[in-house]
Design a protein that fits this description.
Elements: H1 12-27, H2 32-42, H3 47-58, H4 63-67, H5 73-85, H6 88-143, H7 153-175, H8 179-186, H9 192-213, H10 218-226, H11 233-246, H12 251-257, H13 267-270, H14 275-334
Helix pairs in contact: 1-2, 1-6, 2-3, 5-6, 6-14, 9-14, 10-11
Length: 336
């Protein structure tokens, strides 16, 4: 199906909800067509999208073709391969469960971080208020007795300019790195690196198990992913693995050579299991990696939140000092 220009895609939240509810309906015994009918009636804002999906299905398109214009490329790839090689209904159930787990963790992280970010925003507004209103008033009071206070605006400006320049250069450098180089850098960042490794390991093992359940072999999966026309990390990873295999390497050595994947994943490929058996092992391994990811994320949140509040506390003390000390100096000058 060709993309429809005047029709929006699912946003991330709606995409998660769509596949979650679709998976639940399929698990309850409804067909794909029946499930789409139910979701069309249940969600008014999806009607324009799902009506196009229904039209596509009625004209003989496959489910992934009917959804092509409305979902992310990575999910579309899983649907296409499952439709061609295996059980798409089971794949839809798995996609719904996986997306729901990630949505739950993202919501938890955003809730924890929202309050510190709001406080930082308020502090920023207070700093602007001090510069624009309080400091000029204090200078006016002091002009009657002595020279105005020279606040370190030049130092602040130069520091801000240097920081902005550094961030701009870093973003330019980051943009010109390959996806694999970016992953290797992220995997070496303290605290964050372990989470990055768990995320990549979980996603790789989970998607491989899902596609192998559909009957695909590992070389077929790598070739299919590498043929995609998008710049996702999955496509970049598939291309990098292909290069490694062409040079005479194997998948186990590739995993062990990369810092963004947990080494334990390599053990499942050394044993030489058949795709269906390997899929079951990887499915179990993906579940253990997800539990590990949740534990690591909880620990990270538990460390990050007090750190944020500590920074905010120091900023508040500095803010009060920058506000009260000039006032005390001014009041003292009036009585001299």
């Amino acid at each position: 199906m060709k993309p429809i220009k005047n029709l929006a895609r699912f946003n991330k939240r709606d995409q998660v909800l769509f596949f979650q509810e679709l998976g639940e309906l399929l698990s309850s015994g409804y067909s794909i067509a029946q499930s789409i009918d139910i979701l069309t009636s249940a969600h008014q804002k999806w009607q324009s999208i799902l009506s196009q999906v229904q039209k596509g299905l009625s004209t003989g398109q496959t489910f992934y073709q009917a959804l092509e214009a409305f979902i992310s490329p990575n999910i579309l790839l899983q649907l296409r391969l499952s439709d061609q090689h295996g059980d798409i209904s089971n794949t839809l159930v798995r996609i719904g469960q996986t997306l729901a787990k990630f949505q739950q963790q993202q919501s938890k992280l955003s809730q924890v971080m929202r309050y510190p970010i709001i406080l930082l925003g308020i502090l920023g507004l207070l700093l602007i208020g001090l510069k624009c209103f309080l400091y000029p008033m204090i200078n006016q009071w002091r002009e009657t007795n002595q020279e105005a206070i020279n606040y370190p605006y030049a130092f602040i400006f130069c520091t801000g300019l240097l920081t902005l320049t550094f961030l701009t250069l870093w973003l330019w450098y980051w943009h010109h790195l390959s996806s694999i180089q970016q992953l290797n850098i992220l995997a070496k960042v303290p605290f964050v690196g372990t989470i990055v490794r768990s995320i990549v390991t979980y996603q790789v093992s989970q998607q491989l198990s899902m596609l192998m359940f559909s009957g695909l072999t590992l070389p077929e999966i790598i070739d299919e992913v590498a043929q995609q026309n998008n710049k996702s990390y999955a496509v970049a990873l598939a291309h990098d693995i292909q290069k490694h295999l062409k040079l005479g390497g194997n998948i186990e050595r590739y995993i062990l050579s990369q810092s963004f994947v947990n080494d334990s994943l390599a053990g499942y490929f050394i044993r030489g299991h058949k795709p269906k058996i390997l899929a079951r092992y990887l499915d179990y391994y993906a579940k253990t990696q997800f539990k590990l990811l949740m534990q690591q994320t909880d620990r990270f949140i538990g460390t990050l939140q007090p750190l944020f509040f500590g920074i905010i506390g120091v900023a508040i003390v500095g803010l009060y000092m920058s506000m009260l000390l000039p006032m005390y100096q001014t009041i003292g000058g009036l009585y001299q």
